[in-house]
Write a structure and sequence with these properties.
Length: about 260
């Protein structure tokens, strides 16, 4: 087992931080239908900025941080990005990939990056409900296996209505379809947040009133411990996750034996 950071955040905190970030974007004069690209690992701030961006009528573009700098620059240019958030983990390529973004629209998360305003500045703003929340949207880029990556968003999903956004509503509806508990619980995020499904289910679970436990990276044994510790209600996983769980020693099942008895 590797040492994996996992953080638990409440739905109330996600909404409060989202309200603050929405106000921050307006304060920084980001266009009302502006595009905000995010180069973030799995972290609490991903959930916060997702909520803020889609609660103030703007468009979130999550970027796969495994991509080359050239591919990231292409996505930024193709999406006509207005502002960008970059985690300090990727500070070594921050300047290279954000050179086309005005310095006032560059924001750092998790630590200092030269020439970037800290995301933490948003935490000084009021966190109460927005006066006029407007639904935003999310645009996910394909992997580019048949050419350049292509931005995909639900047609007509970004309208002058009230949030939540389409991704949040879809995640909420899918979880409600399969869970006995219709509200409350704990959802574990194990896959990269920049993918559509983890983002959709995470936002949907939060809208249902679930706490989120966000794993920085996947580890099967650590995941089983988190299931037991937080009595997890839901999770989104792909076949690779299940294969790795099946390859764990049998004594790892002790982590979930108490939960299974319930």
């Amino acid at each position: 087992m590797v040492n994996v950071v996992a953080i638990k955040i409440s739905p109330e905190l996600i909404q409060a931080r989202g309200n603050q970030f929405a106000r921050f974007l307006t304060q920084q004069d980001i266009p009302e239908r502006g595009v905000i690209a995010c180069l973030l690992p799995n972290c609490a701030e991903f959930a916060y900025v997702m909520r803020g961006i889609t609660w103030c009528g703007r468009l979130l573009v999550p970027i796969n941080w495994h991509l080359s700098s050239a591919d990231i620059v292409y996505i930024i240019q193709n999406s006509e990005t207005d502002a960008i958030l970059i985690h300090s983990n990727f500070s070594n390529k921050a300047d290279e990939i954000s050179h086309s973004i005005p310095s006032a629209f560059r924001f750092s998360v998790g630590g200092h990056i030269d020439g970037f305003l800290p995301y933490e500045n948003s935490l000084n703003l009021p966190d109460h409900e927005l006066d006029n929340p407007i639904v935003g949207n999310v645009m996910i880029y394909t992997s580019g296996t048949t050419g350049q990556p292509k931005g995909v968003q639900r047609q007509g999903a970004m309208m002058d209505g009230r949030p939540p956004c389409f991704h949040g509503l879809a995640g909420k509806a899918m979880l409600q379809r399969y869970l006995k508990e219709k509200s409350g619980g704990t959802h574990i995020v194990v896959a990269p947040y920049y993918h559509s499904a983890p983002l959709t289910y995470g936002e949907g679970a939060s809208l249902l009133g679930f706490d989120l436990v966000i794993m920085e990276k996947w580890d099967g044994e650590e995941f089983l411990k988190l299931v037991q510790e937080y009595r997890a209600t839901s999770v989104f996983m792909v076949p690779t996750h299940f294969v790795q769980l099946l390859q764990l020693p049998e004594d790892c099942l002790l982590y979930t034996s108490d939960a299974a008895d319930e």
